[in-house]
Amino acid sequence: MMMNEDQVNDIIQRWQNTPEDHLKPEDYQQFKNLGSACLTDGDGEQLLKFLQDEKNQGSVKSMGCVLMAPLVKEVVKKEKSLDHCQAAITHLTRTCSPDELLHCLLELIEDIDAEDISETVLVLVPHLQTVLLQLDDRKAACVGLALTALQKQLSRLPVPYTRQQEEADEHGLCRCYSALAVFMKPFIEEVKRRNGNYASTSEDEELRTELLKFCMRSLREPLLEAHLNRDRKSSMWLFATEIMVTLPAIQESLPELLFFSPLRKSTQTDISQSKESRACLAYLLFVQLITIDSFPAVFSPVFVLQCNMEYINQLLSSKKESHLLKGLALYAKSLESVQDNSLPVSLLELKSFYSVPQNLRQVLTDCPMQHLRESGLQVLQLFIKKLDAEAKHKFFRCMLKTSNHAGVESYIVKNIRKQVEFSMEPGNANKWFLGEEFLSLLGLVFCFPQGAETDLLNSMDRIMESLNLLRYLLIRDKDLRSTTYVWEELCRIKDQYLKMLRVCISISRGHYSAELKALKQDQKLKAKEAREAARSTRLVKRITVKREKVSNMSPEEQHQVLQSALVTFDLMESLIFRIEEITEEKLKIQT
Asked: What pTM, to 2 d.p., does this model score?
């Protein structure tokens, strides 16, 4: 029901004369209705005058909190009375009970509509800070509640990934986290002031813990999702810097967080999330080099690598591009400082040193993004470069046994040849790539796990690389002949391998030749039917070629694949022929 001015004045007069504890729920609702009516009529100035009137301060202090929601919504809508509404909110935060205001603000945060998240957060954050700073009891817990509620809402917004997305900041996430960085500063300063001045209280410790929780959540989201580049100080990069500076400011040691102890029990609600947060922390420190100048330089490169492998494994086990990029970058950076040919075989016995290469293999074989596969290959080569001879030998054996991918296996075989070449240089001789231990590796290289049923086309990369290695070993036989047993065993392995390869080629050639012949016959049949159909103007049903391997290809594509397979078999046979020639030449020299 609409009220005239006299009725409104009578109600206001009654509020002024009524003690706080005598106000009824109807009074609170009427107070809210009158304030909302002013806003609806665009009369924010009149409402502000009422709130600021000295005679009304008792009523405002008692009931003003109920106006917080309509005022904030008015500001978010950016109506004409924006300045008056902002001033009204500011007045309420200084007049009303901080506890009641906090309750109202947390409810507002909880009920934000999806389309208004960033605008509402930006309006609320400075006023929320004012309210929290006025609290005496339970300040730390309330700061934690506010930060958790804000981050919960911000997690609903997409994290900008490209430079253009971040600069546009369409959803306002970057502006919100910049505002949160400002929001935190007085509480960080409070922790810093209390450190060392006197014995910490439980309240001090709780505030430090809540700030730590916020930092670790921020590392996981949005920073782990964001694309960061230290050459371009974007808003997300600057927020990352704030987080990295905050941790030591609240007496959280970065080495302890990363290397020595888990997070406090109160923050370990989810171990995997904790690992993601610390993985991002390691990335910001060692790749982006944020606060690296203040990081202790006493840790050896091998120790840093060993500790970071847990985080690298966490990142590379993800399917997200942002995680994989950070994992590969952290892996490369952790390896760079390690001396070449120095990592001992004992490290490969650690779980992370097994899991990381396996996850890297998944990136190389399954990741649809070419730039990640290329980066992954570079990191794999860097890792191999850092292993000592025994570790390389064991790593190659492991990859040949577990990769199940011809491309990866061919890359390993190529690296085996490089190590043989290196071992043949003066002063580099070792048993792992020249002596008896080398034979166990060769046994894995020169084998056909599926026997005569091996699909040579799918295994082509590995087989061609293996044949090239075999040819090289026979040409460089002098170093291998120094140990009679090694040379004799190599010859035995060679004979078995080439014998089986010939059988496989024969079977595969017969299969693909038959496929090619059938394809040609099908094409002739189709051409004949097409001519007959044209002459008789009848429709002819389409004839389907029933071949599993190439059934989804056009006839031209099928012909090309089948022809290519036969050419591949010719290449393999030419390499076999050359290897046999070399063998005969070596036998003549010996006799």
From this structure: 0.86
